[in-house]
Amino acid sequence: MIAIALTVAIAGWWRLGLKEIVAEEGNLSEQTLQVLKVEKWNGFNSLRYGITLALNQGVEASTVVLLLLLPVVATLVSGLHYLIGLSGYGIFMPTMIAVTFLNTGILGGLILFGLILGISALSNWGLKRLKLHFWPGRSISLMFIGLGTFGLMLGSQYFKNVIDLSGISIYSVLLMILLAEEFTRTQLTKSKGEAKKLTLGTLLLAISGAVVMKITWLQETVLLNPELTVLIVVVLNLLIGNYTGMRLTEIKRFGKAIRK
Amino acid sequence: MFNLKKYRQFLTKNERNRIYLRKNTAEGRAIADSKYRTKKRLQKGGVGVPKLIKRFKTIGKLEVFRWEDLEGNFVIKPASGYGGEGIIIVRRRGKWAGEWVKMDGEMITTNDLNWHCREILAGRYSMHGMPDSVIIEERIKIHPMFLAYTKSGTPDIRVIVYNRVPIMAMLRIPTEASDGKANLQQGAIGLGIDLGSGITTFGIQGKGEIIERIYDRKRKKLIKVNGIKIPQWRQVLETAVRVQEVIPGLGFVGVDIVLDKEKGPEVLEVNVRPGLSIQICNKAGLKARMNKIEDLEGRNLEHGITLAKYLFSERFFEKVEEKEKIKTIQPLEIIKVKVPKGFKPDLQKSEVIRQGKHRVVEVRGKVDTGAFRSSMDRVLAEKLGLLTEDRILYSRHYRSSLGKQNDRPVIGVTFWLKGRKIMTAVNVADRKKLRTKFLLGRKDLEGFLVSAKKT
After folding, report:
1. Residue B229 phi/psi, 5° resolution?
2. Predicted ipTM?
3. What are A31-50's pLDDT values in tens digits?
4. Candidates A131, A189, A256; nearest CB to B208
5. Which residues of A touch B122 (CB under 8 A)?
6. What is the spatial distance between Cα B257 and Cα A46, in angstroms, rounded to a whole number?
7. What is residue A87's three-state secondary structure?
8. What is the pTM of this model?
């Protein structure tokens, strides 16, 4: 419940602040380019020098920022997992979904995911009766998802002032399908509770990742200090990777096992 | 309140993920992850497993399989399945040809079985959806003792074995919530088991809900989770340790064992990443137990089980305390030391007393609350047959109050003090010149009060 409330709150904040953030980002790129230009190559700033070259050749600044931020978000996700105990479907899934949220917006992403999950659950339930082979069943399910997403994009035109989903890229849809598939899979192989827990965890991790990715200050910093970013990512992951102590959630779990 | 020190005993998930990689080789993990390879290995090594009837790798073989040749009493499983998914248990043939009766009494047709096998082959139940193979094996006849606790599904015993020493065990009971699967994650019940006696201690349902009572279907009432005795306990532990002997490269495993009515303990599955909830239903930490035997290794089957028995036994005084008052003992007490089965003690016959099914010898013991472990005279230990190779748990450095250091063997001893049975590890020392041949350390005096009054 708390998780859902938090999600809605963040989603609301997100929608309000979206326009200003985008506007700021536009300015940021120009400023950053200005700062980058005065660079002189001295060996320690090879990466930064390379970025300047790439930007001059027409590579989008936002792409470079995203590439640099990906490992940062992955580090955040792994930190939340190994230190706090928040679990999702692996590390790539939450990281990817975080990027997806950048494209769809958090509220939009959640609506898209809900829709895909609903359709795939419904079609699975129906297809079970037909006793088809495994893969043809998945194909039909995929078709329903495709049609449903198309319907959503079309329908959102009429609520443009609330949420605009017409600009969803195909990659966002594909990643959301993957997440929905994981959900059905876990529900089958483990349990409903576990599937819910992991899916909610994934979304939560992805949302925190997306929030971090949207911080202008961070975008600016990683673009201006790519070498430092790489170093910090490596050091942090070495630290987390060697941590064998308790996760925060385990305090509650093992607390029950302590004899009075 | 929150005391971090008390958490040190537990094996955390972060650490488990490292230990399983460090202690289990890639080969061992590969064997354990495939039910088929595990079964083959164990069968070859003489460990009990449910008998394999048939295995399919392709649809072609499945299509020519004659189901009607089977008599019923079989189980269909995915070879690389996990969490107990994709398993169909068939009890007997149905009334008409092509019909079968499942465990829960439902009908299933040969067509349904074929379809289910195709799903398994396509990888519906395997990790990451990889193509899998189908195993058909004989159904286990559940030991009647377990029938009281479950409606459908087979209860099993999970034993964690580390360095060829069993370090923790639990009884897993399927529930309706777990859909007949003995998997805690799905809502099955787990009962901790005392390694020394095979008697259950605490209970848990699912991954973290502590329970105190379970339903007994025979007596039709709720009973306490503690006090259920697992039959053939020693054989269960032996089977678990044998798995580590037979499959190479497994240093840290959870072995799932079922008890067959006729054939005794059989290994269902070997798990290289055993769950950690076992610590909650035992109310004990795996880490502390692993540390205790870190530099020891079960020399052989016998030794591994002896170690487990004497190092990790529960003291049931908590339960006793509720019923009777704390017992008071004098500084000098007569204790009864158990003589191992089949050993002829080097004593006069009159000294050996029968006590129930055990033979015991009365020994005068002196209470020493300044010592941690109890201590026993070397000559006496030899006479009682306690100082044999098999019974020596390990050797430890001891520092006496005079600053002398020497290497003393630590042996497993069972004795009775004031009628209370104590299974413990005792070190062997030279007490030739002392009047009392047995020193009672504070480790074995829990639940007793020592009176200093003159008597």
Report:
1. -90, 125
2. 0.76
3. 666 666 656 677 777 888 88
4. A256
5. 133-135
6. 59
7. coil
8. 0.79
